[in-house]
Amino acid sequence: MEYQILNIQIMDRIAVVVISRPAAMNALNSDFFSEFNHFLDDLEPRDDVKVLVITGAGKSFVAGADIAEMVNFGKEQGLAFSIKGQRTFDRLEQLNIPVIAAINGYALGGGCELAMACDFRIASNLARFGQPEMNLGLMPGYAGTQRLSRLTGLGNALYMILTAATISADDALRIGLVQKVTEPGSLMEEVMKLASKIADNGSQAVAVAKKIIRQGLEKEFSKASQMESEAFAKLFDQAATKEGLKAFLEKRKPDW
Ligand code: CO8
C-alpha cells in the first residue's frame, strides 16, 4: 500500500510511525484508519520488530478525530466511525510488542485516546492533552471515557472530559497520564533509548508480561495472580528464559 498519512521507518528492531496530515493537525480520518490497519496487518506477523513508537509530525501529535469528516454524520455513521476507531485502538493495545506514544504536541480528543491505547506515553514539555469533545457538543468515542478513568482515576477523567480542559505535559505527568516529560529536542532520543532498552529484553517475557498486566486489570485479584503464576511457570519452558538466567550467572549479555 502507498501510505499518504503514515510515514513508517523500521530500524534496529524498532518501528516508528509518524502520523502526518499537516493541513488538519494530523486529525484522524477514514484514510488514517485504512492505512493504520494495513500497517498493523503487516506488523503483526513480524518477529523482527520488538517495539512500536507512534508520534506526530509538526506541532501536533493528533488533534482529534477529523471534525470536517464528522460534521455531516448521522447516528449510523457516528456509530460506525466510533466502532472502527475502537477496534483499531483495541488491536493496537493488544499487539504482542510494547507500543510507546511519543507525544510531540497536541494530543486532543481522538489523539489523546490513541495515546492512551499505547502502553505508555512520553511527552515533550510542549505537549498538550485534553478531551475537548464537550466543546463540540460531543463526547469521547474511541473508548476515552474508559481508558482515561482507568489510567488517571475517576476524578481526573470526569474533570478532563466534563470541563474539556486542555492540560500541560507536567499536569499530565502529575495525574499519571504520561510517564515522563522531556525537552522538545530530546523527545525522540529519550523514546528511542527506552525502546532499545525494551528491545534488549527477552521478547517472549515482554509480550507475556504486557498481556498479563492488561488482562489482569479486568479480573478479580486472586484470578489475576493465578494467571500470573501460570504465565511465569510457562516461561521456564522457553529457551530464551534459560538463556537469560544462564547469562546472568555467567556474567554476560543474553544471546536471545
Ligand atoms: N479535525 C479537522 N481539522 C482540524 C482538527 C480536527 N480535529 N484540528 C485542527 N484542524 C485543522 C483546523 O481546522 C485548521 O484548518 P484550516 O487551516 O483549514 O483552517 C488547521 O487544522 C490548523 O488548526 P488551527 O488553525 O486551529 O491551529 P491552532 O494552532 O490555532 O490550534 C488546535 C491548534 C488547538 C489543535 C486547534 O486546531 C483545535 O482546537 N483543534 C480541534 C481539537 C478538537 O476539538 N479535537 C477533538 C475532535 S472530536 C474527537 O476527537 C472525537 C473522538 C471520538 C470520535 C468518535 C467517532 C464518532
The name of the CATH architecture of the largest domain is Alpha-Beta Complex
Describe the sheet with the most strands: 6 strands, mixed
CATH 4th-level superfamily of the largest domain:
2-enoyl-CoA Hydratase, Chain A, domain 1
Mean pLDDT: 97
End-to-end gap: 33 Å
State the helical fraction: 40-55%
Q: What integer value in Å does the Rg equal?
A: 19 Å
Contiguous helical run count? 11
CATH class of the largest domain: Alpha Beta
Q: Write down the overall geometry.
A: globular
Return the CATH topology of the largest domain. 2-enoyl-CoA Hydratase, Chain A, domain 1
Q: Using DSSP, what is the number of strands?
A: 10
Can you tell me the residue ranges where pLDDT is under 50 for at least 5 consecutive residues? none
From the helix content, strand content and strand pairing, which structural class follows? alpha/beta
Bound molecules: octanoyl-coenzyme A
Structure description:
By secondary structure, this protein is an alpha/beta fold. It folds into two domains: 6-199, Alpha-Beta Complex (2-enoyl-CoA Hydratase, Chain A, domain 1); 203-249, Lyase 2-enoyl-coa Hydratase, Chain  A, domain 2. Helix content is 49%, strand content 17%. The chain has eleven helices and ten strands. It has helices at residues 30-43, 67-70, 75-93, 110-117, 144-152, 154-163, 169-174, 187-200, 203-217, 221-235, 239-249, and strands spanning 6-11, 14-19, 51-56, 60-62, 99-103, 106-108, 120-124, 128-130, 166-168, 180-182. The strands form two sheets. A six-stranded mixed sheet has the order 1-2-3-5-7-10, sandwiched between helices. Strands 4-6-8-9 form a four-stranded mixed sheet. A hairpin with a 2-residue loop joins strand 1 and strand 2. The protein is globular and about 60 Å long. The chain starts with 5 loop residues before the first strand and ends in a 7-residue tail after the last helix. 33% of the residues are buried. The mean pLDDT is 97. Bound molecules: octanoyl-coenzyme A. Octanoyl-coenzyme A binds next to helix 2, helix 3 and strand 6. Residues 24-25, 27, 60, 63-68, 70, 78, 81-82, 85, 106, 108-110, 132-133, 136, 138, 140-142 line the site of octanoyl-coenzyme A.
